[in-house]
Specification:
This protein is α+β, with helices and mostly antiparallel strands and 166 residues long. 16% of the residues lie in helices and 32% in strands. It is globular, with a radius of gyration of 16 Å.
């Protein structure tokens, strides 16, 4: 399912970098293309932002207690969804045990095998890291909760090649 968000690039950048955001009481409406008969519970964009329905919002609000998640109301055509804003970036990248190349400033450029400092990650979490803020990560426990609830529209990947840069 494709759609154009039309979100300002500065807004998208702030969102990706974990800033608390709002639409200032102006709920945007996005037009869907290539609609299916029934919308999935989760609709992602090519920019690793995602929209969820009330079912998934309730699960995240109940299960994720150690992180701040900001739910921004949106309309996808006539349907009410929520743009999920994960506030903050987790400091959990294991520089010692991950395999990566670096930019001149020492930050990871291409990550081939990512390792996390598990003690820095809540047990149930969805998160971004400063070393690769575009990527979304979830804990295995949250993945299991979403699968048990029958949440649709989610694609999981075990591929940890986080190549970024030019």
């Amino acid at each position: 399912m494709d759609f154009e968000t039309g979100l300002d690039s500065d807004f998208v950048n702030e969102l990706t970098n974990g800033k608390l955001m709002s639409f200032d009481n102006n709920t945007p409406t996005f037009k869907l293309k290539n609609k299916t008969k029934e919308l999935p519970d989760v609709i992602g964009t090519s920019l690793s932002h995602f929209f969820i329905n009330d079912k998934v919002k309730a699960i995240l609000k109940k299960e994720i207690t150690e992180q701040e998640i900001n739910f921004l109301p949106v309309k996808l055509d006539i349907h009410t969804f929520w743009l999920v804003n994960i506030v903050g970036l987790l400091d959990c990248f294991d520089y010692k045990n991950s395999e990566y190349t670096t930019f001149k400033n020492g930050l990871p450029r291409k990550i081939f095998d990512i390792k996390f400092i598990e003690n820095n990650i809540p047990e149930i979490a969805i998160f971004r890291i400063k070393e690769s803020p575009i990527k979304l990560f979830i804990t295995e426990k949250l993945k299991n909760i979403l699968e048990e609830a029958g949440v649709t529209g989610v694609k999981y990947s075990d591929n940890m090649d986080l190549t970024m840069g030019i």
